[in-house]
Amino acid sequence: QVQVVESGGGLVQAGGSLTLSCTASELTFRRYVMAWFRQAPGKEREGVSCISWNGEITYYADSVKGRFTISRDNAKNTLYLQMNSLKPEDTAMYYCAADLRYGLDHEYKYWGQGTQVTVSS
Questions:
Q1: What is the per-residue pLDDT across 16-72, written as a single tens digit (0 to 9) for each?
Q2: What is the C-alpha radius of gyration for the chain, rounded to an integer number of angstroms?
Q3: Mind giving me the DSSP string for 81-114?
Q4: How far is residue 33 from each of residues 19, 50, 101, measured CA to CA in Å?
Q5: What is the CA 115 to chain-centroid distance, rounded?
C-alpha cells in the first residue's frame, strides 16, 4: 500500500510564502505521478498542480500559475509545493495525491490526510 503524509501548512500573511511537503512510501514513490489538490469550505475540490514521475512535465491551475512551483525529490520520496505571493483565496485544506496516470481530471488512487493553509488579509 502507498501511504502519503503532508506537512508544512500553517498561517501566513497575504503576500507571504509557504512550502508544503509530502512524503510517500519508500520504494513506491518513484514511478507515481504526484499532485496537489485543495478544498475550501463550501467549494469544490480544485486540482492545483501535478508532476510526472520523473519531474519532466508539470501542470498548474490558472489560479496558481506563476505563484506556485511543484517539485519532487525521488531520492527522498518527497513532493513539494512552493507557494509564493499567497492570497486569502488560497486558504484551503491542501491534499497530496498519487496515481499512475498524469493529469488532474481523473480520480487519484492514493491520498494524504491534508494540511491546512490559512492566508490572512
A1: 999 999 998 865 677 899 999 999 999 999 999 999 999 999 999 999 999 999 999
A2: 13
A3: EEE-S--GGG-EEEEEEEESS-SSSS--SEE---
A4: 19, 7, 6
A5: 10
